[in-house]
Write a structure and sequence with these properties.
alpha/beta, Nucleotidyltransferase, domain 5, five-stranded mixed beta sheet, globular, ATPase_NBD, transferase, kinase, Euk-type_GlcNAc_Kinase
């Protein structure tokens, strides 16, 4: 059965069970994913667009991305806006009220008044995708980095990091890539040691010498994404034993581990209820999809001492947005719903 037939079959089944629709939108620094489904966990359609990070893209471009995705996913699922009960957006750079408010106003302007619209940062929805709402911490390292924790018994939510590429994002793809480019330029100047990263970076960007990198890198349409992509070269060089790359990787692992341990301490401060013996730690983002790097992260002292249960995210973060859309509408995340969602977009 091809993809279109699968979508159509799910549509027929969903129509027989109920007409309510829920949209989840997950927006990171590189791309934005969107799904639509019903209250029974049947995912009807999905699509992707460009980044919707309100901190790194002009507001009119963010609006265009969100409008396009909503219109497209409705069309793909043969749904109407009148069927929408809820939309939940997990967007990078949208953690504070002043960042959420314009997004909520804009999305509401596209939909019927009855449709509930909620915005959180993308870490909240990745956590929901990894724990189904149970206590735990999510560590995201993609273009940016952040750790968020949730204690359902008390409703306590904490976040550590996620301050953007100018003020933080330690251990992120951007941070790793930027340090690699700095090392290449220091070596070119004669201020730093030679590194295999030089030849790898030059080949990656298609230039003959480091002197041409400044024009090439700064001229990229999405500079943050272009620099974050260099992190893959760092992992390759580190696996081959390059000293500079290994140093960058080791520091990145330590910084990410620090985010996690700080989040746990805030969730379970002295005098409060004790943390679970093996607190789930959900790993999400392109950097943490590299198993070699994840093993180095697990070996970091802050994680070894913390008693965490590492859970690589097996369900796409956008499914966490859909889960949160269901939960905000009062729908139960039953075993049947979990089974349905586990089959989709993982």
């Amino acid at each position: 059965m091809n993809a279109q037939n699968k979508i159509y079959t799910e549509h027929l089944r969903s129509t027989a069970l109920g007409r309510k629709r829920y949209i989840g939108i997950d927006g990171g620094g590189t791309k934005t994913s969107c799904v639509i489904g019903d209250e029974f966990g049947h995912v009807l359609a999905s699509c992707e667009g460009e980044s919707s990070n309100v901190k790194s893209k002009p507001w009119d471009e963010v609006q265009q991305v969100l409008r396009s995705l909503i219109e497209k996913v409705l069309k793909l699922s043969e749904s109407t806006a009148d069927q929408l009960e809820g939309v939940f957006l997990g967007l990078a750079g949208s953690d504070r009220e002043e960042e959420k408010a314009p997004v909520i106003r804009f999305v509401r302007s596209l939909l019927p008044e009855k449709t509930a619209v909620t915005v959180h940062n993308d870490a909240v929805t990745a956590l929901a995708a990894g724990t189904w709402g149970e206590a735990g911490i999510v560590l995201i390292s993609g273009t940016g980095s952040i750790a968020c924790g949730f204690v359902p018994e008390t409703g306590k939510y904490v976040r550590v990091g996620g301050w953007g590429y100018l003020l933080g994002d330690e251990g992120s793809g951007f941070d790793i890539g930027r340090q690699a480019l700095v090392a290449v330029m220091r070596g070119f100047d004669g201020r730093g040691d030679e590194t295999a990263l030089t030849s790898m970076v030059l080949e990656h960007f298609g230039v003959a010498d480091p002197n041409k990198l400044i024009t090439c890198v700064y001229g990229k349409p999405n500079v943050r994404a272009a620099i974050a992509d260099v992190s893959k070269l760092v992992f390759t060089a580190a696996k081959q034993g390059d000293g500079i790359a290994l140093q960058i990787v080791t520091e990145a692992a330590a910084q990410l581990a620090e985010l996690v341990s700080t989040a746990k301490n805030a969730m379970y401060p002295p005098g409060a209820a004790a943390a679970p013996a093996a607190l789930p730690l959900v790993l999400s983002g392109g950097v943490l999809s590299d198993e070699w790097f994840t093993s180095r992260l697990q070996a970091a002292q802050a994680l070894r001492a913390g008693g965490f249960e590492l859970r690589p995210l097996k369900i796409a973060p956008v499914i966490g947005c859909y889960i949160m859309a269901l939960k905000q509408a009062g729908a139960d995340i039953t075993g049947q719903v979990k089974e349905q969602l586990s089959k989709k977009l993982n």
